[in-house]
Amino acid sequence: MELVNQTAVPALAIIAAGAEGGPRIGMLVAKATFELSGHLIHPVTEDPYPLFEQDEETEVGILPADVHPRPQSTFEVLLVGSAQAPERRPTPALTAGLTVGAVSKTMAVFGDRWWTPHGQMTPPQPFTTMPLTWDRAFGGSCDVWLDDSTIVESRDPMNFLGSGFDAVYASERLADVMGAAPTYPRVAYERRLPNLEDPASLIRTPQDSPDPMCWSPAPPGVGFSQVQLMRDVKDAPDPVAANPSGETLTLRAHPDWQIPLPEVGAQVVLDGCAPEGRLAFELPRLRVLADFVLGDRQGQRELAPQILTLLPDQRRMCITYRSHFTVDVEDGMERSFRLRLEEGWYSPARSVSDGG
């Protein structure tokens, strides 16, 4: 498959493995990078973020892989950054906010806190920056001794990377299932509270077990998205219609930020994630199109914007675009895409023209 790309937007054409001579599933993926300058955004043409084949670790969290297929209709919002105290003056707590079009959410951000042996919270320690990562959300894991030589790891099912879960209760449940020697189970665990919480369900007691709150990409192995999906399917009037293919397991955003596609020119507002306190701008009006030749088929395919990745620490943002297609793989058959950009915004009604 030939992809002709003379734009400043990195792009790939990927075709899945399959039998020779038969139809295969393919995907076009492109990622546009923009620089934030006050209320304005500018395309980055010199050093845009590349397309990642694997998750990319950064100091402020994970930049997710771009090459995995996902549901065509869902738009994800990811925030890779830190909560920042206004004017960098240390604060024990602040409220971070994020708005994308018609959707607005807030997050309570606290300095480090611990449970005392008497079940009281220590006062939050002042901070100037707080990474908005899953290890700062509710959850956790710990080693449980079932006897003097048997150690088993206990994990919070929603977020094993986090902190704050009741390790003693978890160890007792594990011992009930697996058995434990007299005077066991034993657990060594520092009961640190999470830094990131949902303002609508703040932790009040050591027994509280809220859903984790985090807006960065969920790392592999974090079960929150899968557990949330199972809940949604279980509670749906028609479970098969709620999840006919299981595709949503590939989503990386917190369920709060798996949203409908924003309208053209939607406003994006970030509060508490930059020293100046607020960043506000409109989504860029950019269409990514591909003119194709697939054997005797010719036409145009538009890539749908699927992921908005906000990187306020770098004063950057990215939009990842994708389109899926099928193609017959035959010797000598012409198969090519030519990428081009236009001003505007995606419309499902015109995503494909002239076949394909």
Would you spell out the secondary-structure blueprint of this structure?
Layout: E1 2-5, E2 11-15, E3 23-37, E4 40-43, E5 56-58, E6 61-63, E7 75-79, E8 82-84, E9 93-100, E10 103-110, E11 129-131, E12 138-139, E13 141-145, E14 151-155, E15 163-164, H1 167-178, E16 186-187, E17 196-197, H2 224-235, H3 239-242, E18 258-259, E19 267-271, E20 278-282, E21 286-294, E22 297-311, E23 316-328, E24 335-343, E25 352-353
Q: Any overview of this molecule?
A:
This protein is mostly beta strands and 356 residues long. The chain has two domains: 2-81 and 220-265 and 292-332, no CATH class; 105-197, no CATH class. The protein is built from three helices and 25 strands. The strands form six sheets. Strands 1, 2, 3, 4, 7, 18, 21, 22, 23, 24 and 25 form an eleven-stranded mixed beta sheet that branches. It has a five-stranded antiparallel beta sheet with strand order 17-10-9-19-20, with no helix packed on it. A hairpin with a 6-residue loop joins strand 19 (267-271) and strand 20. The longest helix is centred in the middle third of the chain and has 12 residues, at 167-178. Mean pLDDT is 86; it is low at 238-248.
N/C terminus separation: 15 Å
Fraction in helix: under 10%
In total, the number of domains comes to 2
Please summarize the sheet with the most strands. 11 strands, mixed
Overall structural class, as computed from helix and strand content, comes to mainly beta
